[in-house]
UniProtKB/TrEMBL annotation:
Superkingdom per UniProt: Bacteria
Protein name per its UniProtKB record: Histidine ammonia-lyase
Reactions catalysed according to its record: L-histidine = trans-urocanate + NH4(+)
Coiled-coil features, chain-numbered ranges: none
MF terms (GO), sorted A to Z: histidine ammonia-lyase activity
Family that this chain belongs to: Belongs to the PAL/histidase family.
Gene3D superfamilies, per database record: Fumarase/aspartase (Central domain), Fumarase/aspartase (N-terminal domain)
Subcellular location: Cytoplasm
CC annotations in GO: cytoplasm
Length: 494
C-alpha cells in the first residue's frame, strides 16, 4: 500500500479490496495463535491481561469477555470529534497491518473493516485519548468498538446513527473478538501516520501555491525576477527544494510587463528579504517534505503490533508501537510550514504599507480613508501566523507515564499530528490572504500587464468570485473563497 492509496481511500472514498494472498497469510498466522491459546504456557495478549495487568493468566472461558472488555475500556476518548478523513486513514492503515499476516487475527476482521470503509461507515473518534505509544489506543478502540456493533458512528450521509443499524443497513455482521484480536485492532501508530500522510499531500500542494503567490507579490511590489535565475541556486547552493521554488517563481514571472517596466533605472539595489529569499524558505519546506516522506514510506512498510507473529510462528513482544519516529517528523514539518506562513504575512504587510509598496494605494483601498481596503485582512493573517508559532512548539519532547509506570515513556505523536493539521489549515488561510492581496496589487499596476502565469492565477481567483479593487465590502466571504481555491486547485497557473 502506498501513501496515494491511503489518501484515495481516506479522502476520496476509493474502494478497498483484500487480496487472496493476504487472506491466506492471515489464516496461516491465526493458526499459530489458536495453538498457543490452548497451550499451558501464558502468552501476552492471548491468555493474559494487558499492560500493567499482563501478569494475570486469563482462563479460556473468560477470553472472549477479555477482548470485549479491552476494547470497551480503551474506547475512552473525549473532546471534539476527529475528521472523517483521519478516521478513514487510521482504519485503512490498521487494515493494512492486519493484512500483513503478522497480527494473528482471523480474516473476518479485515474483511469487516473493508466492508465498513466501502460502506462509508465512520466510527466517532475523539480528539483526546492517545499518547502516541502502545499505538493510538483510544482512537483505534473507538473504531474497534464499531466493528463489534457498539459505540457511535456516522453513516454514509454523515449523520450519526446507532452502529447496529448502520451495519445492518450495509449487510455487515458485527464481529465477536477472540484471543489476541483486541490488541491487534488497537496497537498501531495508524492515526499518527494517517495524519502525516494527509499533511504531506496538503503541504506539497501548498508549497507550489506559495511559489506562485510569492511571485505575484514580487510583481505587485515592483520587485525583480533576477534573483530567481537558475545560475544563482543549484550551482551555488544545491538544496533541491530551493532550486525548485526559484525555478517556479522565475517561470511564473516570465514575460511580465510589470517586472520589465523597472528593470532599468530603478534606484533600489535589492528587494526585501521576504521577496528575495522566498525560494530559500519555501525550498526548506520542500526539502523537509522529501525527508519526512521517506519516514512515512518506511512506516507504511512496517507491521505495528504487539505481540507480533513471526514467520516462524513465534509470538513475541516488541516496542514497535512507539510513535517516536513519526512524532519527530510531525514536529519537524510544523516548523517550516509555520515559517512559510510567517514570510507570506510579511509580503502582505509590505503591499499594504504606502511607504514600502512603491506607489500602491494605502491598504490597497479604492478611496483610502473612506475605505480601509485590506487592512484588517492582514490582522487576520497575523493572528493565524501567531497561532502557528505557538503550535510549532514540539509535542514529542513531552512524556507522561501511564499504565502504572509500565508505559513510562510515550511519544505524544498523536498530539504532534493534531497540531500539524491545524498549522496546515492556518497556512492555507494565510496564503489565501496573500493571494487576495497580491492579485489586487497586480491589478493596480494597470495598464502594465502581469506575466501570463500570474495573470492566470489572478483570473482563477476572480472566476471563483473574489472581486478586485472597489469600495469596501463584506470581506470574510471573499477570503473564504480564496481559501477554497487553494484547497481545491492543484495548480493556480494551469
Amino acid at each position: 500500500m502506498t501513501a496515494d492509496d491511503v489518501i484515495a481511500i481516506a479522502r476520496y472514498g476509493a474502494k478497498v479490496i483484500i487480496s487472496a494472498e493476504s487472506l491466506a497469510a492471515m489464516q496461516q498466522s491465526r493458526e499459530h495463535i489458536e495453538k498457543l491459546a490452548v497451550a499451558e504456557t501464558p502468552v501476552y495478549g492471548i491468555s493474559t491481561g494487558f499492560g500493567a495487568l499482563a501478569n494475570r493468566h486469563i482462563a479460556t472461558e473468560d477470553r472472549v469477555q477479555l477482548q470485549k472488555s479491552l476494547i470497551r475500556s480503551h474506547a475512552a476518548g473525549m473532546g471534539p470529534v476527529v475528521e472523517v478523513e483521519v478516521v478513514r486513514a487510521l482504519m485503512t492503515l490498521r487494515l493494512k497491518t492486519m493484512c500483513s499476516g503478522k497480527t494473528g487475527v482471523r480474516p473476518i476482521l479485515a474483511q469487516t473493516y473493508a466492508q465498513m470503509l466501502n460502506a462509508n461507515i465512520t466510527p466517532v473518534v475523539h480528539e483526546y485519548g492517545s499518547l502516541g505509544c502502545s499505538g493510538d489506543l483510544a482512537p483505534l478502540a473507538h473504531c474497534a468498538l464499531a466493528l463489534m456493533g457498539e459505540g457511535r458512528a456516522f453513516g454514509p450521509d454523515g449523520i450519526e446513527a446507532p452502529v447496529a443499524e448502520l451495519l445492518a443497513a450495509a449487510q455487515i455482521k458485527p464481529v465477536e473478538l477472540r484471543e489476541k484480536e483486541g490488541l491487534a485492532l488497537i496497537n498501531g501508530t495508524d492515526g499518527m501516520l494517517g495524519m502525516l500522510i494527509l499533511a504531506l499531500a496538503d503541504l506539497s500542494v501548498l508549497a507550489d501555491h506559495a511559489d506562485v503567490i510569492a511571485a505575484m507579490s514580487v510583481e505587485g511590489l515592483m520587485g525583480t525576477d533576477q534573483v530567481f535565475r537558475p545560475e544563482l541556486h543549484e550551482p551555488l547552493r544545491p538544496h533541491p527544494g530551493q532550486t525548485k521554488s526559484a525555478a517556479n517563481m522565475f517561470a511564473a514571472l516570465s514575460g511580465s510587463e510589470i517586472v520589465a517596466s523597472h528593470r532599468h533605472g530603478d534606484d533600489r539595489v535589492q528587494d526585501a528579504y521576504s521577496l528575495r529569499c522566498a525560494p530559500q524558505v519555501a525550498g526548506g519546506l520542500r526539502d523537509t517534505i522529501n525527508y519526512v516522506s521517506t519516514v512515512a514510506d518506511r512506516e507504511l512498510a512496517a507491521v505495528i503490533d504487539n505481540p507480533v507473529v513471526l514467520d516462524s510462528g513465534e509470538v513475541t513482544s516488541n516496542g514497535n508501537f512507539h510513535g517516536a519516529p513519526i512524532a519527530y517528523v510531525l514536529d519537524f514539518l510544523a516548523i517550516p510550514a509555520t515559517d512559510l506562513g510567517s514570510i507570506s504575512e510579511r509580503r502582505t504587510d509590505r503591499a499594504l504599507d504606502k511607504f514600502r509598496s512603491h506607489g500602491l494605494n494605502p491598504f490597497l483601498a479604492e478611496d483610502a480613508g473612506v475605505d480601509s481596503g485590506l487592512m484588517i485582512a492582514q490582522y487576520t493573517q497575523a493572528a493565524l501566523v501567531s497561532e502557528n508559532k505557538r503550535l510549532a512548539a514540539p509535542a514529542s519532547v513531552d512524556s507522561i507515564p501511564s499504565s502504572a509506570m509500565q508505559e513510562d515513556h510515550v511519544s505524544m505523536g498523536w498530539h504532534a499530528a493534531r497540531k500539524l493539521r491545524q498549522i496546515v489549515s492556518n497556512l492555507r488561510r494565510i496564503l489565501a490572504i496573500e493571494y487576495v492581496t497580491a492579485a489586487r496589487a497586480i491589478e493596480m499596476r494597470a495598464p502594465l500587464s502581469p506575466a501570463a502565469a500570474t495573470g492566470r492565477a489572478v483570473a482563477k481567483l476572480r472566476a471563483a468570485g473574489v472581486a478586485g479593487v472597489g469600495p469596501d465590502r463584506f470581506l470574510a466571504p471573499e477570503l473564504a473563497l480564496a481559501e477554497g481555491v487553494l484547497a481545491s486547485e492543484s495548480s493556480l497557473i494551469d
